[in-house]
Write a structure and sequence with these properties.
Helices cover 40% and strands 21% of the residues. The chain has 15 helices and 17 strands. The chain has a six-stranded parallel sheet with strand order 9-8-7-10-11-12, with helices on both faces. Strands 1-2-3-4 form a four-stranded antiparallel sheet. A three-stranded antiparallel sheet has the order 15-16-17. Strand 2 and strand 3 form a beta hairpin. The longest helix is centred in the last third of the chain and has 23 residues. About 5% of the residues have low confidence.
Amino acid sequence: LFFSPPSQYKFRDLTIEELKDVSKTYPNFTFSMNTYTFKDGSQKDLLNFSGTVPVKYAGSSYNIPVQLWILDSHPFAPPLCFLKPTANMGIAVGKHVDARGRIYLPYLQNWSHPKSTLTGLIKEMIAKFEEELPLYSLSSSDAARQSELLSYIAKITEGETDMKSRSKTGGRNEGCFNKITVVGAGDLGIACVLAVAAKDVADKVVLLDLSEGAAKGGTMDLEIFAVPNVEISKDFSASADSKVVVLTVNSLGNAQTYLDVIQSNVDLFRGIIPAVSHYSQNAVLLVASHPVEVMAFVSWKLSSFPKSRVIGVGANLDSERFRYILTNLLKAEVLAKDAWVIGEQGEDKVPSWTSCNVAANQTEAMAARNSREKVANRAMEVLKGKGQRSWSVGLSVADLVDSILKDKRKVHSVSTLAKGCCNINSEVFLSLPCILGTSGVIEMVRLEEDPLVQEKLQSSAGSIHDLQQQLKL
């Protein structure tokens, strides 16, 4: 074999096969291991390959020099791509290239193994460069100035940026202790950013906009009105060292069935979870994508994070509303104290309590339960008419992020791995009362033993598990 990736590469055999394909199709590429410096100043030895790609533009042929860095979670995370211009070449900043030569393509944004490959990426790179040439020839005077820029680019892509020197002096994360990333710039993603900003929960919020093209709609408005401490990026490396990563993306494909819709979301997550997990290896993943129980399970499997650090937004919003209705509309404040909505989002969610000290004997306890059930049913009927809009879910997300970042040890009803609870034996995520802190779920709060509630939870677990069995992970 011409080149063998080191053992740090988790999917070494798959990476080797891809490198063989690249070498066969583009024999001018050379392979090596070098140090790459990320935006936050952290460094890692990564496999990279350099060479030229053939481009035809305006009747002429060009060889465009590029360099691709392969992350150690390849092929589940896209490579980092740069132009490598010579001293007499200038970078033509455009739709697919920034001022330092970083290459951005729809193929990278939609990266999903096994559909996405390195040779497929290079083919799209050639096609996009033929639409808009990324380099141009410099005059001799411009070439001298360009050499300064090239030395800076070389430092970026060879691990010697000024970030490195700043990190030595301790300035790397100065003033930014609580950083979160919101993945997805749709209505829900923007609602989460605004809610977190309004509650002043985090020191910095990164919004990863994975849509194609320039900033649109709400993302553009965030840039125009300059929301404090919010950074908008299309680059996964911008999420580095986040303490919480909020996932709000949902596939907008043309799927015909419910299973197809979920499979589209799974395919989307294949290109996202390994990348954000790579850059923030100690983060808590907070899933708000639909269906939240399944996508939390998918995130857990793709990230290989411990179960405590992967949670779904679950019934947190419903639980807060439920207790509000009990207290303020039905005047049942005593009942609201330990009341929760649990299970799965949608029609199958159920009310439950974490304690039942309402009666001294069995007869009184039964009467109290019947009375409580009537009030709970009324509250659930009121709850049904509320719906869940993006801004309300965003407020719920900000509430959860606040508890995690500030280590509040507050109880929330969130989607967590339910195996072992209520005689559930399958690996499914259901909303259950959990104490949250900086490491995610610290402890699951014990529920009152109610046969009806347990039966409903087991039924939900069974249907979710059957659905998961039909997915291609």
